[in-house]
Write a structure and sequence with these properties.
about 220 residues; mainly alpha; Endonuclease Iii, domain 2; about 0% strand
Length: about 220
């Protein structure tokens, strides 16, 4: 199935079938980052960059026990936050961004996490990926698709995007999938990427969507 010969209609049918099968494999939409509010979710997502969700979940109970909301975290010192999150990568820059984010929430949003893409992306350290996760998981809004390393890799292997950047990949996926599917993709594809479509050794022979994947057929 050469990618450049597949019609948009057939590609969309294939894309929807991928989501249908993965929905059966991973029922329910849930965020793997433990949180209790839009604020704790926002901070957890900021901390998760280049770090596993499991590693973040180990440090957030203490972090949120000490600084449970924006007013509290806005007054924290970088050294105190660094000491709490030092077990994850980039902890110094993440501590700085989390405090700056809390301060901006307090100064410009009344201490509350905004529920718009524009408002979220105005916060320190927050890009479209983080904003999409917060909007979907905290507010139930499907404004886009969070493109992390898993989604970026899987979209390319499935032939749904040839883009070189996450932002361009998101644009391709938004054009391919009807909005009703947007909120499902990141959660399911992250799980799928960890279990089957791994970066170095994808399990194509066991993959539940291998017959829908040009890359799997070529490597079989």
């Amino acid at each position: 199935m050469p990618r450049n010969r597949e019609s948009k209609t057939n590609r969309q049918k294939r894309a929807i079938e991928v989501v249908t099968r993965l929905t059966a494999l991973y029922p329910g939409e849930q965020c793997l980052l433990e949180h209790s509010s839009p604020f704790t979710l926002l901070i957890a997502v900021l901390l998760s960059a280049q770090t596993t969700d499991a590693a973040v979940n180990k440090i957030t109970p203490e972090l949120f026990g000490r600084w449970p909301d924006a007013p509290a975290l806005a007054t924290a010192t970088p050294k105190d936050v660094e000491a709490t999150i030092h077990s994850i990568g980039l902890y110094r820059s993440k501590a700085k961004n989390c405090i700056a984010c809390a301060q901006k929430l307090l100064g410009e949003f009344g201490g509350e996490v905004p529920d718009t893409m524009e408002g979220l992306c105005s916060l320190p350290g927050v890009g479209r990926k983080t904003a999409n996760i917060v909007l979907t998981c905290a507010f139930g809004k499907s404004c886009g698709i969070a493109v992390d390393t898993h989604v970026f890799r899987i979209a390319g292997r499935l032939g749904f995007s040839t883009a070189k950047t996450p932002q361009q990949t998101e644009a391709d996926l938004l054009a391919l999938y009807p909005q009703q599917y947007w909120s499902k993709i990141n959660h399911m594809w992250v799980l799928f990427g960890r279990e089957y479509c791994q970066a170095r050794r994808p399990r194509c022979l066991a993959c539940p969507v291998a017959d829908l994947c040009p890359s799997a057929r070529l490597s079989a």
